[in-house]
Amino acid sequence: MDLTIALILLQDGILNGAIYALLGLALVLVFVVTRVILIPQGEFVTFGALSLAFLANGRVPGTAHLLVLMGVLVCLAEAVSCWRARQWRGYGSTLGWALVLPLVLEALAPLAAGPDVPLVLRVLFALALVVPMGPMIYRLVYQPVEQASVLVLLIVSVAVHFALTGLGLLFFGAEGWRTPALVEGTVQIGPVAWTAQTFAVLATCAVLIGGLWLFFSRTLYGSALRATAVNRRGARLVGISTRVAGSLTFTLAAAIGALSGMLIAAITTIYYDTGFLIGLKGFVAAIFGGLVSYPAAAAGALFVGVLEAFSSFWASPFKEAIVFTLIIPVLLWRSFGSVHLDEED
Q1: What is the rounded CA–CA span in Å between residue 175 and residue 169?
Q2: Rounded to the nearest 10 degrees, how much is the dihedral formed by the CA atoms of 70, 154, 131, 207?
Q3: pLDDT by residue (tens digit) across 107-145?
Q4: Please, what's the b/e burial string for 89-103 (b: 16 or more CB within 10 A of its CB; e: otherwise)?
Q5: What are phi and psi of 320, to 5 degrees?
Q6: Residue 220: predicted pLDDT
Q7: Is 193 helix (H, G, I), strand (E, B) or coil?
Q8: 162-192 b/e with 16+ CB inside 10 Å = b?
Q9: pTM of this structure
Q10: Domain extents in the chain
Q11: Residue numbers of the chain with a pLDDT score lower than 50
Q12: Cβ contacts of residue 333 below 8 Å, gap of 6+?
């Protein structure tokens, strides 16, 4: 290994680490607010990347049809809840975002897949297809068991992961896809040519992290999420709806996952099950922060990305094992300073 190879590996490590940082932040956000370890986070990555790939190749993505199906189920579930409570206030808004919006997007999908559509518009349309799946999954799967233990919620997450993976195979097939680069060109830095896509990914990650910081520190909804993360019971006592908080966190997680998939799909081939490994590496990053610290999760993600890149050079067949084995010493290290607390209702 010489300096040039080391810099190339460092570029790959930083690029992958930035993506893992976003996923790690999303996992921490969902866990501290809802106590859900969101294993299906990787499926949002896959759906976002493959939706954009289908649109770029002139095909209507299966997420357009899946969104309508999920929206119908959400409307039925909400109708049952309203009928039992004899309270129909708010059901109209549910029909709007869970049924009308998916039907409109499905009708516009052939236009978005047409020729001469700018890539930026296709990115926005793919986000519109995937992001609503976050709150829909929360409403259908997690909201009915929101008072369950963390272990039960984890088992539910595993089931959701397998279900979404199967749906990904059904709607996208087993073939791998790539998307066009968001930014073309290269930038020469020393002996290494850095792709413009790398800087686009890093800039997007920085903007998203900064946007999340502003959201949590300067907005009412952000303050509500922080209060829910600190004390769910206290948040309910002061009038904060933990269900709304959960739905909002799943929306943010879906948006982060889908955008992350679109960023990396230009540099790696994405299959229907690719998101699982990517999501697991984001989970390793989140473990660095004990599933509660955002800065530690981001730092852990960069470390995971660099470790993976250099492992691929020194021991390519074992790079995944090396990354995931890292969980063991990190868990041991965190266990030494942990204090057991009874789980809050």
Answers
A1: 9
A2: 180
A3: 999 999 888 889 889 999 999 999 999 999 999 999 998
A4: eeeeebbeebeebbe
A5: -65, -40
A6: 84
A7: strand
A8: eebbebbeebbeeeebbbeebeeeeeeeeeb
A9: 0.88
A10: 3-337
A11: 341-345
A12: none
